[in-house]
Amino acid sequence: MANWRWVAFAALCIALQSITSGESRLQKRSDELAADPLQTTISQLSEQLTAMKSQMTAEGNRIAALEAKMNSLKRTVAFHAVSVDHIHARGHSPLVLPVAQTNEANAYDVSTGFFTAPVSGLYIFRTNFMCADLTTYVHADIYVNGVYVAGSMSDCRRGYLDSVSTEVIARVQTGQKVNLGNPDDSTSAYYGHKYTTFSGFLLQAD
């Protein structure tokens, strides 16, 4: 009889241990299940926050680009250069007008005769010139980045001074240069006293 009781007691202990272990595993699983929705929510919020940061960065870049665009639109770019003395320009060389009466943005170089575009956009350039020798004629061409875009000829061989002008609208990129040039093979003389001019201005920025 005593052995039976010990066997029953041992069986009861084993059963209780099994129940306790099962409850522990059940509680652990319950905790895991309870934690999963919270972890999922945290992950979702983290992803949304990352996406919002990316959107804010993109929006900030867009605003910065718009501000730069507005600043370029507000910028005044214009020049008007003349020469008091007659100009003697060698063949296939720039005409250098050494006096800048207007030089907004300081884009015209009086030492070289080149205008360097500080802003990309649509520009208007104009020249007025006249030959200084009544026995010959002269040409003056407008070049954009070294490429001929327009030109005229002043012909004084008829015995009187011939004043001509040329105007061109051209799209110029930032850093490109625009200049007047003598396309002839020989040196040409251009009338001074501000009769020979070169001017331009930004019509619309890109």
UniProtKB/TrEMBL annotation:
Keyword Transmembrane helix: no
InterPro entries in alphabetical order: C1q_dom, Cerebellin_Synaptic_Org, Tumour_necrosis_fac-like_dom
One GO cellular component term: extracellular region
Location(s), subcellular: Secreted
Annotated Gene3D superfamilies: 2.60.120.40
Primary localization class, coarse: secreted
Record's signal peptide: 1-22
Domain C1q residues, every copy: 72-206
Pfam annotation, one family: C1q
Keyword Secreted among UniProt keywords: yes
Keywords: Secreted, Signal
Protein name from the UniProt record: C1q domain-containing protein
Source species of the chain: Pomacea canaliculata (Golden apple snail)
